[in-house]
Design a protein that fits this description.
alpha+beta, six-stranded antiparallel beta sheet, three-stranded antiparallel beta sheet, 9 strands, 19% helix, globular
Length: 126
């Protein structure tokens, strides 16, 4: 499974790209493969401040719906509107055009709870 070294990861198979105080968040290559063909992405928390582990949206695949949990606390400042018409971008480009939200980070200390690429790959191998 592809897990770029410049990202941080969660045990729930989400990735984060940190740029200053903004985190771009999506689901990993592993997660999209497990879900199968993604047909709908729902994020109704735009402009809301949420705590770590709160649900910020959901991803609907052909056979299942999965909640998306916030890996760190912050304010949802942007939703990837490309996903409204082409949710399958998560399947074809999970680390690029398939990003889901951008979050203004409210507690940088929470970043220490995340996995680097090496630790994430080790978790997948278990």
């Amino acid at each position: 499974m592809n897990a770029p070294d410049n990202l941080l990861y969660t045990n729930d198979h989400e990735w984060l790209l940190i740029e200053a105080d903004i985190a771009t968040i999506g689901i990993t290559d592993y997660a999209q493969a497990e879900l199968g063909d993604i047909v709908f992405v729902d994020v109704d928390t735009l402009d809301e401040s949420l705590d770590k582990e709160e649900v910020f949206g959901s991803v609907e695949a052909v056979k299942t719906v999965s909640d998306l949990l916030l890996p760190i606390s912050g304010e949802v400042v942007e939703f990837n509107e490309i996903l409204e018409d082409t949710p399958e971008k998560i399947n074809t480009d999970p680390y690029g055009e398939g990003w889901i939200i951008k979050l203004k980070i409210s507690d940088e200390d929470e970043l220490t709870d995340l996995l680097d690429a090496k630790a994430y790959k080790e978790m997948l191998a278990e």
